[in-house]
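call fold(seq) -> tokens
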Amino acid sequence: MKVNWKGVFPALTTQFKPDQALDLPATAKHLETLIQAGIHGVVLLGTVGENTALAYEEKLSVLCEMRKTAAGRIPVLAGAAEYTTALACRYARDAENIGVDGLMVLPGMVYKSDGRETLTHFRTVARSTGLPIMIYNNPVSYSVDLPAEGFAQLADETNIVAIKESSENVRRMTDLRNLLGDRFILFAGVDDLFLESAMLGAQGWVAGLVNAFPREAVALWDLAASGKWPQGRELYRWFTPLLHLDTKIKLVQYIKLAMAQTGMGSEMVRAPRLPVEGAEREEILRIIRNAIAGRPELPVAAAG
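ret:
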């Protein structure tokens, strides 16, 4: 299906069994729950989906099964996070053959490419597929940064259509608009900068905590999209302590712990990640449980 690049696109968690084996039925069940909550699209196998912890064939099995689950109701994007450009191109072609609707392309993993290398990677992957592409710019996590001037050099790649901006510098939203107009569709990529990004023109949100609190995330999007800023701020202020968890090194463990607390899935992760424990666990549980205890009644317009 054609991607409508707008709205809440969860960075879907990948569910695992207690022995860390891939749990496709549980992942599909979780995706179905999010679809019923009103999400607008989904990103499989991003950072939150533990892309680099999965074997290549496991990744393709996730794409196949989640595409079946979505069944054309929402666009399905596949995260492309590989160690080499050649492997990213192979993955892009395989994802296209499976029938996903688009890609979210990351820079090459492990090696920290410079600007020329980063641009070459993105260009090469884009030219390997006919799928529309969102570029994921996250210098905080991956130590590779593409500022607005870099994206200007990608403007001639017609299937690069969107940017997930995760630099944690909300000024980038305005810089991109000022330099490039509406050439690229902008997505907020940091949960606790969503409302600021929406006010500055983000047309979508690749979200993390939506995995545990989907109706609240969709309601927040609806309020922002309709310009109901006072109501949006109120909901955002309740949500923000949770959204801060998306910016931590252990965001995957924290999001999955929140999912377990809200009955949305398992907290099991794949090593080298391990579930959090001790004082760290108690502090994250305090944040999650406080949010659950104060869970707001959603505005009627947003909840509908």
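The chain is about 45% helix and 10% strand.
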